[in-house]
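User: Sequence recovery, please. Input:
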């Protein structure tokens, strides 16, 4: 008889720890991830030929966390069937999960499925945001961490939350000039009212202070309560225009400032990658602070679908530290379900991670107001502004569809093709929902098979459909 099997989707901190925990508790584990090496976005690894190099004082805490995470994963990696460069493109049920790599596809079965697919960066569109040279703050980090490449020489950064600050400081350390960091809200908005959260996040705050000190020493202006108005340039990004806003996201006349830059990075928060969980039938709810449409789950990560678990930021924004702890908790629950149909069977094995997770959750809950968008910010999306980059859909087209009665996300998608492109709507659906109003945010778009782009040759080349671990 085959061993009970746990399939984990995503090899970031949550997925790595879920896989290691389930393997430690005696399950056969398949770990599927699109990237060539584990670590996720936060611990993105360069190719071996680019590895090494000095680590700055500000980056040492993250490097130490990465080292501990990989050491913990390595203890059980020999018992994990890790499939890099592989996507889960459809979930028809725990007994029919379609995975595909560049050359072939396969239907697999799981006794428990852990979705640890993380987050996608959110950008509020402004005129000119589709010009070459406009990227996300996370893309700056990905290029630097994964390829040792600096995205530009003069990099302006705008958005909400702590990521724009960290990314800007990393660019300064990499030798770039940063003319401005413009944030919608102060980072300390909720923290000052919550001493317990300040204490719980003291280590992270200390790291943040070091990154901020780098910007201050470099003379980078960090402007809070400022909003990006537009990007302009002759065929590529050359200028960023910002202004102070009135508290609701509307610019205050006469406060505009222009900054020359060859690269402009935005980050307005994150959207949870919950599409696989939704496709599997998990109940979701809309929570703007935690990433939009997030699966409803209990403290073990269990969803409304028996045997389906969600770990880390795919279940709601909480950061990499909480994600690793959450992965270990969810991995224990998934192992308990796979082996005994009892998600609480191995709860004692994750007690330390559960307590650590609670501490990180306390801090993140207080930090959340810093990336909550002002209510009127989407008024800056002009009729000619492209909202869906993949399909070239403008706000004017979307407004016409809403006026015609297509005010739900699925109706807007069918009518305008917004969200039908290669990114699967990850870049535009939150904006689409905001433009549509209450019904838009209350209705998650249908998750359909083909959730990740897959070559037709890979679908045609179906290898034997075997149960994992059999």
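Assistant: Recovered sequence (470 residues):
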């Amino acid at each position: 008889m085959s061993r009970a099997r746990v399939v984990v989707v995503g090899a970031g901190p949550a997925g790595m720890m879920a896989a290691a925990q389930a393997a430690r508790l005696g399950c056969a584990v398949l770990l599927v991830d699109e990237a060539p090496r584990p670590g996720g976005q936060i611990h993105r690894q360069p190719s071996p030929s680019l590895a090494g190099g000095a680590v700055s004082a500000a980056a040492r805490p993250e490097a130490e966390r990465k080292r501990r995470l990989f050491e913990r994963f390595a203890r059980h990696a020999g018992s994990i069937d890790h499939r890099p460069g592989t996507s889960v493109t459809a979930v028809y049920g725990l007994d029919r999960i379609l995975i595909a790599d560049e050359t072939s596809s396969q239907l697999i079965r799981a006794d428990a499925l852990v979705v640890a697919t993380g987050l996608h960066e959110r950008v509020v569109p402004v005129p000119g945001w589709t010009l070459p040279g406009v990227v996300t703050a996370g893309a700056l980090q990905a290029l630097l961490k994964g390829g040792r490449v600096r995205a530009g020489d003069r990099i302006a950064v705008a958005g909400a939350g702590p990521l724009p600050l960290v990314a800007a400081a990393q660019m300064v350390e990499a030798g770039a000039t940063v003319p401005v960091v413009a944030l919608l809200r102060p980072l300390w908005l909720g923290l000052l009212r919550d001493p317990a959260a300040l204490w719980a996040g003291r280590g992270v705050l200390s790291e943040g202070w070091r990154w901020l000190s780098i910007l201050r020493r470099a003379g980078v202006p960090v402007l809070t309560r400022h909003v990006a108005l537009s990007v302009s340039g002759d065929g590529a990004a050359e200028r960023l225009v910002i202004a102070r806003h009135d508290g609701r996201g509307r610019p205050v006349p006469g406060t505009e400032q222009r900054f020359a830059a060859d690269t402009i990075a935005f980050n307005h928060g994150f959207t949870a990658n919950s599409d696989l969980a939704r496709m599997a039938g998990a109940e979701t709810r809309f929570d703007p602070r935690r990433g939009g449409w997030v699966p409803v789950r209990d403290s073990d990560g269990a969803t409304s679908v028996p045997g389906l678990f969600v770990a880390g930021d795919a279940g709601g924004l909480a950061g990499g530290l909480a994600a690793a702890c959450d992965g270990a908790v969810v991995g224990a629950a998934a192992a308990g379900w796979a082996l005994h149909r009892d998600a609480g069977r191995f709860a004692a094995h994750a007690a330390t991670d559960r307590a650590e997770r609670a501490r990180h959750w306390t801090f993140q809950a207080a930090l959340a107001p810093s990336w909550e968008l002002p209510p009127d910010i989407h008024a800056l999306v002009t009729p000619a502004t492209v909202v869906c980059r993949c399909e070239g859909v403008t706000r004017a087209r979307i407004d016409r569809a809403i006026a015609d009665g297509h005010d739900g996300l699925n109706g807007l998608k069918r009518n305008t093709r917004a969200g039908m492109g290669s990114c699967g709507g990850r870049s535009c659906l939150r904006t689409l929902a905001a433009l549509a109003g209450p019904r838009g945010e209350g209705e998650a778009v249908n998750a359909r098979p083909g959730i990740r782009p897959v070559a037709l040759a890979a679908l045609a080349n179906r290898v034997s459909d075997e149960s994992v671990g059999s």
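The radius of gyration is 22 Å.
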